[in-house]
Amino acid sequence: MNSKSSALEPMPTQLVKLCLPELVDDLVNIANTSFEAGTVPRRHKRAIVRPLLKKPGLDPDVLSNYRPVSNLLFEHKFLENMCFNQIDEYFNQFSLYSKFQSAYRRNHSTETALLRVRNDILVSMDNHKECILVLLDLTAAFDTIDHDILLQRLEHRLGINGIALKWFDSYLRGRTQRVCIDNCYSDDEPLFCGVPQGSGLGPILFTLYTSPLEDIILANDIDFMLFADDTQLYFSCKNLSDWKFIPAKMHR
């Protein structure tokens, strides 16, 4: 875990990490109590959002060039990491990860995603086929997650229920955030959708939320690769002018 501190912290993160030998048992007890009760402490659900440029060199006067990153309590990030480790073990044990999702998984990266897509396209070219690649990117992807739909995904698609599902419900609900620009803070505002960008669980929850997308693509017999909210669709045939796309019927 990095040493970045939040303005909400009672003490700097670097100091907490130096004192971990004395604090780790208490932190673990807080996390285990949270899991056993199915409740996330209310103070953990506050965040300070700092807008950061998506890439160096972008025009700072264009608001769309910024990414809203949530600055969370160290204690909360510790709790998220413990939860992530359990989810990751559960998903790997029962092969619940999407086969073609290359984000936020061990031994997967942007490199593995690009290697597969590039290799498939080159194989098509070697077989004298034409290939079309379509790149999809969602805008404000993490901010648009519907909490009710996500909880349904966790329960019915991934088999998470009981106290564990109650914990995720508590994790998602009742969050607030305030924006900080040049050390000026806005008022706290409630969040009714989305997951914190910059959190430990946000990315994996997003991939679970969008997992049915894989079913739709497979039903239409299209090759694809996913990396978080970036989707690569590609298909090949002998002559693209003869190719016809007939959408498969999907059932909810």
TrEMBL record:
<protein>
    <submittedName>
        <fullName>Putative RNA-directed DNA polymerase from mobile element jockey-like</fullName>
    </submittedName>
</protein>
<dbReference type="InterPro" id="IPR043502">
    <property type="entry name" value="DNA/RNA_pol_sf"/>
</dbReference>
<dbReference type="InterPro" id="IPR000477">
    <property type="entry name" value="RT_dom"/>
</dbReference>
<feature type="domain" description="Reverse transcriptase">
    <location>
        <begin position="33"/>
        <end position="252"/>
    </location>
</feature>
<keyword id="KW-0548">Nucleotidyltransferase</keyword>
<keyword id="KW-0695">RNA-directed DNA polymerase</keyword>
<dbReference type="Pfam" id="PF00078">
    <property type="entry name" value="RVT_1"/>
</dbReference>
<dbReference type="GO" id="GO:0003964">
    <property type="term" value="F:RNA-directed DNA polymerase activity"/>
</dbReference>
<keyword id="KW-0808">Transferase</keyword>
